[in-house]
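Class, carefully examine what follows:
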Amino acid sequence: MLRMMAVTAHPDDEAGGFGGSLRLYRDRGVETCVICLTPGQGASHRGGAHTDHELAALRRREFAASCKILKVGRAIVLDYPDGQLHRQDLYRVVCDLTLHLREFRPHIVLTFGPEGSVTGHTDHSMASVFASLAFHWAGRNNRYPDQLKDGITPHRAQKLYYSTTNFTLPDRGPITLSPATAIIEIGEYLETKIAAFKAHTTQAPLWSLVETHLRQRGRKEMFHLAATVNPGLIQQETDLFAGVTEGD
């Protein structure tokens, strides 16, 4: 079975950033996984939670509900601090992600671009950095060699994509987006994507704004091919698995 992993920063990123493609490819028979680096305990909208611990617990449940709508097969929330990913030990975080890649063994990896997506969020930028290093290092036996036991072996994913789009937000700082090299038509999965975002009930004050932006983006998700095991000239793609070979 083909496998796809998305690496995100916060609960709700999986829906807003990648939801259409996650559900589309799952319905095509692809095994999917989302690794979320933080439980979102630093969010401004707290849904009645009195402490960061309470909010983290709420958002973990919302993440699970969203991933159920998107039919994500493996949904994992790590415990790094929301809003503080730039202060974390890079080698440690990449170690965690590398192990998840070696265990799940995805053919393609999705994450944000280093600009931090349309919001320019620092956590999104750091998720990009961490995921990109893990993508490259997971296939090398001299990176985190202590992981290589009990059946864990190096794994070389075939493609790394950054999410991108063709608009920016006027009320945010300037960002420089990667050019789109793949445009995925998600069709009716746009509605599924919006429903998955609304599973994050603590973020209800953002629903209207996010839905407006998602509908502005339309029935497509755009990606930039950042790395591939088959280097060559960039070609426009309509399928993230174009050129991918099955097997490990």
